TrEMBL record, chain A:
Keywords: Heme, Iron, Membrane, Metal-binding, Signal, Transmembrane, Transmembrane helix. The chain crosses the membrane at residues 260-281. This is Cytochrome c. Residues 1-21 form the signal peptide. It comes from Draconibacterium aestuarii.
């Protein structure tokens, strides 16, 4: 009887623990930690960059509720579940992780983790948002490659309020090279007051066998434009294609056999047959001599 | 007897011409047909424009499968600090290559290098060695090295001697002891040497870097199914690798230099094509159980 009660007790304890597992408990002393970094634009911006590289792949874009369908679901930054946390709780959860959520204690510095908290707080209704994302603007991007000087020349325009296109100054333009499975970022430039920018392509950029590179030019976020793809620009180093398979190395079959191996093998086999033939011939000779003497 | 032979030959010729006429769709202009595209859209196409899909024949398939993709040199980089044993790579791989649950082209192992060191998870595919011991022992030239670096196996040639299993120091090869998974489903499907599908009982199978997907310009199955950004894959000749999860592309030489990458059992001189980044600054704690074999 006591055993049974014990069992039930253990079962209840187990279930209770499971239930608690759903909720993410943070130690009391961690909850009330104060954020040592200031809630300002530069910290929130840095936090956003960190968010984009480390968190976005699961939590999705802020406010779009497009996180990955995992169990438990990674909440959106703007959601009540996320914002109900104190700053200390957010910091603890980012640091230690749980289940599918990585522990960033080992990969992101303490200051940067607090900056991430700042970024999350940017979407708290109680806070004045410091980072306001303007609706993306329509923009035009023109680019060409100067093959002799190995430069990419860019000209950017943005649509003004009256629908006319104006010169886009001081915008960051990223330049990348198309590779087998994605675009390799090679550099960024800012446009000048005339909306123009020049980017010198690094000398060690590898193209295809002829040195041709597909250069992709695109504007940073905040602008709606199609990236410009400059096909087959002769600005890179020709790709070296070292011959991988040496015939001698992989010799398991006749067509790949090495000459010395083939000759020594045939020599050995031939030698063996010759030896046998010699013995047989000698036997025959003895037999003949014996016959003559009879 | 001779006449019988000529009748037979005539029959074959007639039969083949009849067959080839079958593969052409009857042309009646104006007739529309509804089709579902691979992207899931329902489209209407004129019946005249229909042509049978271009499927390479077995011999063609075997021929091009031996050559590899020109100018490429595939490499994989596995970031051990990101792996948390989600085993999505294994699942994706087993679905792609028709493998039974106990067969692995890629396997996530629990590792501990020495007595007091931290245990970690290590996905282990075929290392696609540049100096492969397995291809040299094959007596029938069924397994071979391609010019783009992939070590492949032709199940149509394999006689099941399992010499290559004995030769491989990485235990990368599996043998089909039983009827393969979903054997009925794949019955009559033309054998694809670049995917080892359909699998054949009594032959060897191994990781092939999803050579069929590479031909289509896609990342290997394991690489694109990883949820944690463990795998980088790309062309060593153009010095760029792409992460399967984040789709970020980076310089291969920089990645392996900055993170002190290593290859498995380098001392054997096999020259593997799979590089490992050490399990440092782990994103997830190790949750497995490791038996203490070191004391």
């Amino acid at each position: 009887m006591i055993k049974k009660i014990n069992l039930i007790f253990v079962a209840i304890l187990f279930i209770a623990q499971q239930g608690m597992g759903q909720e993410w408990l943070v130690p009391e002393d961690q909850k009330t930690l104060k954020n040592p970094t200031e809630y300002n634009l530069s910290n929130v911006k840095k936090g956003k960059d960190l968010y984009l590289t480390n968190c976005k792949s699961c939590h999705g874009d802020a406010g779009k509720n497009n996180g990955l369908p995992l169990v438990p679901p990674p909440p959106d930054v703007t959601s009540d579940i996320m914002q109900a946390n104190t700053e200390g709780e957010l910091f603890y959860k980012i640091t230690n992780g749980r289940g599918g959520m990585p522990q960033f204690g080992s990969t992101i510095s303490e200051d940067d983790r607090w900056r991430l908290v700042n970024y999350i707080r940017n979407y708290n209704p109680a806070n004045e948002p410091v980072l306001v994302e303007a609706p993306p603007q329509k923009a035009k991007l023109l680019a060409s490659v100067n093959e002799t000087e190995k430069k990419v020349e860019v000209f950017a325009e943005v649509e003004g309020n009256d629908g006319k296109f104006l010169v886009l100054a001081n915008a960051s333009v990223s330049i990348s090279a198309k590779k087998a499975f994605g675009n390799l970022p090679i550099g960024e430039v800012l446009t000048n007051a005339e909306g123009r920018a020049e980017y010198a392509i690094p000398k060690d950029l590898i193209g295809d066998e002829q040195g041709l590179v597909n250069v992709v030019v695109s504007l940073g976020e905040g602008f709606v434009t199609d990236p410009v793809i400059l096909d087959a620009a002769k600005v890179g180093q020709p790709k070296q294609v070292p011959k991988l398979i040496k015939k001698e190395v992989l010799w398991s079959t006749n067509e790949n056999v090495q000459t010395w191996l083939l000759l020594s093998y045939l020599g050995a086999v031939g030698g063996a047959w010759l030896a046998i033939a010699y013995v047989v011939f000698q036997i025959f000779k003895i037999w003949r001599v014996g016959k003559q003497q009879e | 007897m001779k006449t019988l032979g000529s009748i037979g030959a005539a029959g074959v010729v007639g039969g083949s011409s009849f067959l080839s006429s079958c593969s052409k769709v009857q042309t009646t202009s104006g007739d529309k047909i509804r089709l579902l595209t691979s992207s899931g859209e329902l489209v209407e196409v004129d019946k005249e424009q229909l042509k049978p899909a271009d499927m390479p024949s077995l011999t063609e398939n075997q021929k091009r499968g031996r050559k590899g993709l020109p100018g490429r040199s595939w490499v994989m980089v596995i970031d051990l600090s990101k792996c948390r044993n989600a085993r999505e790579c294994m699942k994706g791989c087993q679905n792609h290559h028709q493998l039974r649950p106990e067969q692995h082209h890629i396997n996530v192992l629990q590792m501990q290098d020495a007595e007091h060191t931290a245990p970690y998870y290590m996905p282990k595919p075929c290392q696609h060695c540049d100096n492969p011991p397995c291809t040299k022992v094959c007596p029938v030239n069924a397994t071979f090295k391609r010019e783009d670096g992939i070590v492949l196996i032709d199940n149509e040639r394999c006689i099941g001697c399992r010499f290559c299993i004995a030769a491989c120091p990485y235990s990368a090869r599996v043998f089909n002891w039983f009827e393969p998974r979903d054997a009925e489903k794949y019955e009559g499907v033309t054998y694809n040497i670049e995917a080892n599908v359909p699998q054949k009982k009594g032959t060897i199978s191994k990781c092939l870097f999803s050579a069929d997907r590479l031909r289509d310009g896609k990342l290997p199955t394991c690489v694109s199914s990883c949820p944690n950004g463990v795998y980088w894959f790309g062309d060593r000749n153009e010095n760029a690798v792409t992460n399967g999860t984040t789709k970020e592309t980076t310089s291969f030489s920089k990645l392996i230099k900055e993170n002190a990458a290593y290859t498995l059992m380098e001392e054997l001189g096999t020259k593997p094509r799979v590089y490992y980044l050490p399990p440092k600054d782990r994103a997830f704690p190790f949750q497995g159980e490791i038996e203490d074999h070191h004391s």
